[in-house]
Write a structure and sequence with these properties.
Layout lengths: L25 H17 L6 E6 L6 H12 L7 E5 L11 H11 L11 H12 L5 E7 L2 H4 L10 E6 L11 E6 L5 H12 L6 H8 L6 H11 L4 H15 L5 H4 L9 H9 L4 H10 L7 E2 H8 L3 H13 L4 E4 L2 E3 L2 H11 L3 H26 L23 H24 L3 H10 L1 H7 L2 H17 L3 H17 L3 H18 L2 H17 L3 H17 L3 H17 L3 H18 L2 H18 L2 H17 L3 H17 L3 H18 L4 H27 L1
Parallel strand pairs: 1-4, 1-5, 2-3, 3-4
Antiparallel strand pairs: 6-8, 7-8
Helix pairs in contact: 3-4, 6-7, 6-8, 7-9, 12-15, 13-14, 13-16, 16-17, 16-18, 17-18, 17-20, 18-20, 18-21, 20-21, 21-22, 21-23, 22-23, 23-24, 23-25, 24-25, 25-26, 25-27, 26-27, 27-28, 27-29, 28-29, 29-30, 30-31
């Protein structure tokens, strides 16, 4: 009975066709299945169950909702209702009255010529749905106000809402299961592209290369697949190669995700979200898109937006609620790569504003990196900061632990920020940032990031004819190549740096580079030449009162004298170096020299003293999180342990060292692995020999 009249209502079936080539999303489908099971369990209670599906524009919210709805529609014998609310689409959103009229008309209830308020229409809809088991799909909702009156009052019904917005207030009106969609993982993205394009398995290597530009976004993948589809196999390869070239240029990449007829385009879909932002929100979105990623923290965001922390936090929360940003952890955010490119395209319209944001971004990283450098290497000459301006919001980097935490968190951003500074013409900052991060790179031996950032900085310094910058970077770059045993390249870097520093009259720089050239000679077994370089460097450091450089020279001279079998001189120089390190409070230098003393005592055959020195070195190196140094000490300790018959202890030391070296892809990894294999082989031989003795 509806409005006093007993009627037999039709069964509406409004679901549009399910998406073609739907792929993956198994975990998300399981969540929806659980919502349905819960709906069955609570039927008859007052709870209305709603599954709210949110996510980045183009992530496949509608596709998932329709695919699942079709798979379960037989569980809803009284019908299904669907409305595209056009919350983020071309044109105006669907009003509540329009949506209510559409649902009432689905039951053949008159709406034209009948005067009802919006609330009366909603009440009538709830009456219609009250004793029916119906599935409602409210697609592309703009906000809670648009859907609130569309919700049934009966728990027999189940509602799926899709929206780019999180709709947090929905929980006040229903029992909500929130489902936020992530980009497709590689395997599912590859399968979707293969299905849409019709490509075979032997095309997969090429497909993988273009897929990396999609960022797992189903809309982008489908457009790409449609562009690649061709009934002519030979034509497919040409299309694939052409498209790969087109997408490789980042600033033009969004053009590649558009069909020729204009029917679908990633840029257009993004614009529907962007145009709903207020002016300040839109400016924030454009500005944050200039961060090169892969993620950023709230502190740098506040600096980029030039806002106090609290106001910046509110904007970040809002952008997350609209799926234009994603919070990845406590206080860290990321923007989908294609959204980031879209934001950067928009920012191009305001060149002066864009540059100001980039300057604030780079300055924030430089100030933080400078603080880290001072805490990790307090006694080494700092990189000049070139009069950096003040920054609105800096994180608390007050001790070694917080310095390491910041550097580990921001390490993967340093390449992008260094490249951003170089592209923006900020050459003085483009070389200073990697130079300031050197202390962290050298401690953690992150060679890939180390080398890449320094090469970018070197090119920037060269293009700006900044000789001091070139010398700083060349010297630091040479150390990275030295660590990787690429000695010819290391020597070339050092010789170029030395020439510049002599030209500039940089006494400290000359001493530091002579020290590094001596280290290369020592590594190559040319100990006499190494000592010659070290003595030259030592005299320069002593003349200018440079105690850090003096300690480093004494340490390296100690190693060279040991290799010349002058163990008394080696130990004496190491003890002088150790005294200086402790006076300077340089724990990294202390751990290095303690390890060296252990090696000297091992060479003398004083195994007990050697193990004591190694134990002391391990304590220092572990305390300061010097993973590479810890591995080197464990390797040296293992040699002594094995020699005195402590095979199990030696195996443990080598195994622990191997884990660290493998994580660093260190050149010494294969050597340690071979030592472990030899130790295992020796143990097998000993076991066999005991067996033969027992048998006899």
């Amino acid at each position: 009975m509806i409005e006093g009249v007993i009627v037999k209502l039709p069964i509406p079936r409004q679901l549009p066709s399910p998406p073609h080539h739907f792929t993956g999303r198994n975990a998300d489908l399981v969540v929806l299945d659980k919502v349905l099971a819960e709906n069955d369990a609570v039927e008859g209670s007052r709870a209305v169950l709603v599954s709210a599906v949110s996510g980045t524009p183009g992530i496949g919210k509608t596709g998932l909702a329709l695919h699942w709805a079709h798979s379960v529609r037989e569980r809803f014998p009284d019908g299904d209702l669907y409305v595209d609310l056009r919350g983020h689409a071309h044109g105006a959103p669907v009003s509540r009255d329009e949506a209510l009229d559409g649902f009432l008309q689905a039951f053949e209830l008159p709406t034209e010529g009948v005067r009802r308020s919006t609330e009366q229409k909603a009440a009538l809809l709830r009456s219609v749905l009250a004793d029916r088991r119906i599935l409602l799909v409210l697609d592309n909702a703009a906000d809670l106000d648009q859907i609130r009156l569309l919700l049934p009052g009966s728990s027999r019904c189940l509602v799926i809402v899709t929206s780019r917005n999180r709709l947090p207030g929905l929980a006040e009106h229903a029992s909500v299961t929130a489902l936020s969609l992530d980009p497709l993982p590689d395997a599912e993205a590859r399968e979707l592209l293969r299905r849409v394009s019709g490509y075979r398995d032997d095309d997969l290597p090429a497909l993988n290369r273009v897929l990396r530009y999609c960022g797992g976004l189903p809309l982008a993948i489908r457009i790409l697949g449609s562009r690649l589809a061709s009934p002519i196999p030979g034509r497919r390869r040409v299309l694939l190669s052409s498209l790969e070239t087109e997408l490789a240029v980042e600033r033009d990449r969004l053009d590649g995700f558009e069909l020729d007829d204009g029917s679908r385009a990633v840029r257009t879909v993004f614009s529907w979200s962007y145009r709903r932002l207020s002016p300040s929100q839109a400016e924030a979105f454009r500005s944050l898109g200039l961060h090169p990623g892969p993620s950023f923290g709230s502190s740098v965001a506040a600096t980029m937006l030039e806002l106090p922390s609290a106001r910046a936090a509110r904007i970040l929360r809002f952008l997350c609620s609209t799926s234009l940003l994603e919070e990845t952890g406590a206080g860290r955010y990321k923007m989908h790569d294609l959204l980031r490119i879209y934001a950067q395209d928009l920012a191009e319209a305001d060149q002066s504003g864009q540059r100001a944001v980039l300057e604030r971004l780079c300055c924030w990283y430089l100030r933080c990196a400078s603080a880290v450098d001072r805490l990790l290497a307090p006694s080494r000459r700092p990189v000049p900061d070139a009069g950096l301006p003040a920054v609105i919001d800096l994180p608390s980097i007050k001790d070694r632990a917080s310095a390491l935490e910041w550097a580990a968190e921001e390490r993967d951003c340093l390449i992008g920020v260094t490249r951003t500074a170089a592209r923006a013409g900020l050459a003085a900052w483009a070389w200073r940032l990697p130079a300031m991060a050197f202390s962290y790179f050298n401690l953690k031996k992150t060679w890939a990031v180390w080398v890449e950032t320094h090469l970018i900085g070197l090119r920037a310094a060269q293009e700006a004819d900044d000789l001091d910058g070139q010398a700083w970077i060349l010297n630091c770059l040479g150390i990275a190549y030295y660590d990787q045993q690429r000695m010819d390249i290391a020597i070339a870097c050092y010789e170029q740096a030395l020439a510049i520093r002599r030209l500039r009259g940089d006494a400290y720089g000359i001493g530091a580079t002579l020290l590094n050239l001596g280290a290369v000679c020592w590594a190559q077994g040319r100990n006499g030449m190494a000592i010659g370089y070290y003595v030259q460097a030592l005299h320069r450091f002593q003349r200018i009162g440079e105690r850090w450089g003096e300690a480093m020279i004494l340490n390296n001279l100690s190693a060279a004298y040991r290799d010349l079998c002058e163990l008394d001189a080696a130990v004496a120089h190491a003890r002088q170096a150790l005294l200086l390190w402790r006076q300077l409070g340089d724990a990294r230098g202390e751990g290095m020299t303690l390890n060296l003393l252990g090696e000297h005592h091992a060479a003398r055959g004083d195994d007990t003293e050697a193990l004591e020195q190694f134990a002391a070195a391990l304590q220092v190196r572990r305390r300061i999180a010097d993973d590479w140094g810890t591995a080197m000490t464990l390797k040296s300790m293992a040699a002594v342990q094995i020699r005195i018959g402590q095979h199990e202890a030696g195996r443990r030391s080598l195994t622990e060292a191997l884990v660290v070296l493998e994580s660093l892809t260190d050149p010494a990894t294969d050597l340690v692995r071979a030592e472990l294999a030899a130790l295992d082989h020796s143990a097998d031989d000993d076991f066999a020999e005991r067996g033969r003795r027992d048998a006899s």
